[in-house]
Amino acid sequence: MSLLELEDVKKIYGQGEIKVFALRGVDLEIEEGEFTTIFGPSGSGKTTLLNLIGALDKPTSGRVQLNGSSIGEMNKNQLALLRRQNIGFIFQSFNLIPVLTAYENVEFALKIAEKGENRKAKEKVENILSRVGLGDMLHRRPNQLSGGQNQRVAVARALVKEPKLVLADEPTANLDSEASKEVLEIMVRMNKELNTTFIFSTHDPMVMEYARRLLELKDGMICREERRE
Ligand SMILES: Nc1ncnc2c1ncn2[C@@H]1O[C@H](COP(=O)(O)OP(=O)(O)O)[C@@H](O)[C@H]1O
Ligand SMILES: [Mg+2]
Q1: What is the pTM of this model?
Q2: pLDDT tens figures, 34-77
Q3: CB-CB neighbours of 49 under 10 Å
Q4: Measured between alpha carbons, how far is 148 from 75 in angstroms, rounded to an integer?
Q5: Residue 226's CB: how many other CB atoms inside 10 A?
Q6: For ligand 1, atom 14, which residue shows the shortest CA distance?
Q7: How many A from CA of 73 to the centre of ligand 1?
Q8: 169: Cβ below 6 Å to ligand 1?
Q9: pLDDT the model gives residue 115
Q10: Domains detected in the chain
Q11: Which ligand is nearest to the CA of 14?
Q12: Considering only CA atoms, which residue is closest to atom 4 of ligand 1?
């Protein structure tokens, strides 16, 4: 069984006269440990696809199966639990809590994921932050860190609960090319070291270079697929 299976997935926004066909029939299988890039221009359906994969939204038709469960058949609470236990999210605009330090941002995510006491929390938080190269910046707040450093905090936050899958929607869109490289290299390394499955989207050809499996999206359809070693 694959970690993720999509079968003829369609997503239509709106109703009546103003329907938007955001996904027009996507078939996709992703195995544990893959490092996949969804590449396509603005409006091609990248965010829609990641939202469905991340159980943040349901398809209009077709099937999305994550870790053996079909998300179309789950209720809100079941979806929330599925996300909490299996998925880490990384956003374009970092979405860190501004009043919390790097350490506290990551710790907060762990607390939400695990609900309750975790005697190993401190060790886990410090360990993941040093893995992304921020071991000596634990107590800085987002405004005391660069964009690239903030996105590395966000990578640590996504990874601290040891999810099977990390989804990143244009994670480098707000970073310069140097910081983008740093963040991508950390994601590549975390994928190798922890065998976490990564799926991230981009419209930037430089970022695409890092893909090991490339899916190109155009007008809501996968128009090209490539594997690189
Ligand atoms: N909530 C929404 N309501 C209506 N249309 C939407 C909504 N979200 C996205 N769309 C439309 O769906 C298409 C795909 O959008 P999106 O998935 O955001 O693409 P991308 O992330 O590649 O830019 C676009 O035409 C966009 O305008
Ligand atoms: Mg988008």
Answers
A1: 0.94
A2: 999 999 999 999 999 999 999 999 999 999 999 889 998 999 99
A3: 30
A4: 36
A5: 13
A6: 45
A7: 23
A8: no
A9: 67
A10: 33-59+76-227 (3.40.50.300)
A11: 1
A12: 13
